[in-house]
Q: What sequence folds into this?
């Protein structure tokens, strides 16, 4: 599947469930990673149901040098013209803060345009997750709206942004990064 000098994505299967489950230590981590789609604790039964949706394309993130699974991500075909990136997690904490989020966003966005044949890709991100927002902006995503509803986690209300990139903006941003390298 799509590769980068450091990471690649491969289809997420039932045999990968335990690794993903091991990364999610509490409800707050689960909601930040997955939104309200799962309940804590994450279980194999929830993941089986999750994979049964034919619009969902779930992947594990593999570190190419070590051939180790370091994360999880998803592309979801929302309609004929649009897809959504979701449930993005660099689960192995040893690989966080190293720029893999930006590389992954580029790989997954490109995969969505090439394989789901959509005109735009969007995603939702909690407003406090500034490193993820920066990562998405580096690939060409722009904040297009603030979601009206909030997610309640413990005694906190989390607000999220919708970010979107069109195929044209993505290609423009990707060419610009290549030219500047």
A:
């Amino acid at each position: 599947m799509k590769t980068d000098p450091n990471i690649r994505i491969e289809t997420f299967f039932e045999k990968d469930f335990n690794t993903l489950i091991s990364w999610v230590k509490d409800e707050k981590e689960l909601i930040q990673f997955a939104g309200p789609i799962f309940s804590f604790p994450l279980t194999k039964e929830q993941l089986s149901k999750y994979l049964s949706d034919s619009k969902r394309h779930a992947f594990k993130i593999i570190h190419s040098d070590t051939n180790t699974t370091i994360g999880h991500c998803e592309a979801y075909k929302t309609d004929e013209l649009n897809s959504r990136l979701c449930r993005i997690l660099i689960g192995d904490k040893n690989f966080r803060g190293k720029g893999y989020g930006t590389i992954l966003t580029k790989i997954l966005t490109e995969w969505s345009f090439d394989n789901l044949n959509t005109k735009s890709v969007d995603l939702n991100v909690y407003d406090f997750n500034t490193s993820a927002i920066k990562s998405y902006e580096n690939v060409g995503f722009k904040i297009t709206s603030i979601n009206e509803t909030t997610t309640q986690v413990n005694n906190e209300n989390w607000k999220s942004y919708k970010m979107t990139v069109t195929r044209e903006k993505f290609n423009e941003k990707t060419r610009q990064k290549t030219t500047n390298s």
User: Anything to note?
Assistant: Helices lie at 17-23, 27-34, 44-51, 100-116, 130-139, 167-180. The CA atoms of residues 57 and 110 lie 14 Å apart. The longest strand covers residues 68-77.
